[in-house]
Specification:
The structure is a single chain. With 294 residues, the protein is of the alpha/beta class. The model has no long low-confidence stretch (mean pLDDT 95). α2 (29-37) links the parallel β1 (21-25) and β2. The longest helix is centred in the middle third of the chain and has 17 residues, at 161-177. The chain has an eight-stranded parallel β-barrel, surrounded by seven helices. The chain folds into two domains: 8-222, TIM Barrel (Alpha-Beta Barrel); 245-292, no CATH class. The protein contains 13 helices and eight strands.
């Protein structure tokens, strides 16, 4: 029996009840279908698809149209989880009106119920305008991958006193604007614990320790499919990448050695007509017969 669709209100209520929020990043119909059958609370269609699905060096290259394309695919698969579309680089920090329009595309075209934006206090006016337009927003502070050139790479954030203070204050300001949750990425667990205790909206950790209200990982990462780098926080919950490689090797070897396909995996011509087709095949000039059809 299908569960009732998870809503933003449900996510907020989970924190109030002290229940952990289980979320994951997924990008396509097939994986999202499997995730939804496992009754996850939230699926983020992350801009990390830039690297995981499209092979770019970082998240900066993925476009709005590509994000909408993948969000549509996920929304077709999902009946239960809340779907959040990740707003890509340059889609929301240049012009507020354009930001709201782009956020609206995730809802209207992509089938998402909310959007995620990276940044702290500096993007509060944009977040407020989106929420005033009835678009639900998830915040994201700490390591914000769209700013990796400013950070100098995928580096842990909030490790100095001033940086930690700013993260805490940014979280409070995001809450004040009306975000329904905040992703905390790659920050010390002690700072994540302080933030989680001081904001009433849920915190979703990725590399932020055990005291967040929920956790998120990229599905291709935690299954061992995307292995180009492995941050400290990543745990492999399966070795699907190895299983895929073994399956491909098995398939290749069976094809080369004539093992696959066998008759069991082949279609049969009707027995009563088999002699007739063989007789016809032997009695005609195939080239001549084929030319008659032209």
């Amino acid at each position: 029996m299908a569960l009732q669709k998870v809503t933003v209100k449900d996510i907020i209520e989970k924190k109030k009840k002290g229940e952990k929020i289980v979320t994951i990043t997924s990008y396509d119909y097939s994986f999202a279908k499997i995730v939804d059958a496992s009754n996850f609370d939230l699926i983020l269609v992350g801009d990390s698809l830039s690297m995981v699905m499209l092979g770019y060096r970082n998240t900066l290259s993925v476009t709005m149209d590509e994000m909408i394309h993948h969000t549509k695919a996920v929304s077709r698969a999902v009946s239960n989880a809340l779907i959040v579309g990740d707003m890509p680089f340059l889609s929301y920090k240049i012009d507020i009106k354009e930001a709201v329009k782009n956020a609206g595309r995730f809802i209207q075209e992509g089938g998402a119920e909310a959007v995620k934006v990276e940044g702290g206090t500096e993007i509060c006016p944009t977040i407020k305008t989106m929420i005033n337009a009835d678009i639900q927003v998830m915040g994201h502070i700490g390591l914000t991958p769209q700013a990796i050139y400013k950070f100098g790479g995928f580096l842990v954030q909030g490790k100095t006193l001033e940086a930690a203070k700013k993260l805490i204050l940014d979280a409070k300001n995001l809450e004040e604007m009306g975000v329904f949750s905040i992703v905390l990425e790659s920050i010390p667990w002690q700072i994540a614990k302080l933030i989680t205790s001081t904001v009433e909206v849920p915190t979703i950790g990725i590399g932020a320790g055990p005291y967040c209200d929920g956790q998120i990982l990229v599905i291709h990462d935690m299954l061992g499919i995307f292995t180009e780098f492995k941050p400290k926080f990543l745990k492999y919950f399966g070795n699907i990448g190895e299983s895929i490689s073994q399956a491909l090797d098995n398939y290749k070897n069976e094809v080369i050695n004539g093992v696959y396909p066998d008759h069991e995996h082949s279609y049969e011509f009707p027995e009563q007509d088999l002699d007739k087709i063989n007789e016809w095949f032997e009695s005609v000039d195939i080239n001549e017969e084929a030319h008659k059809l032209i």
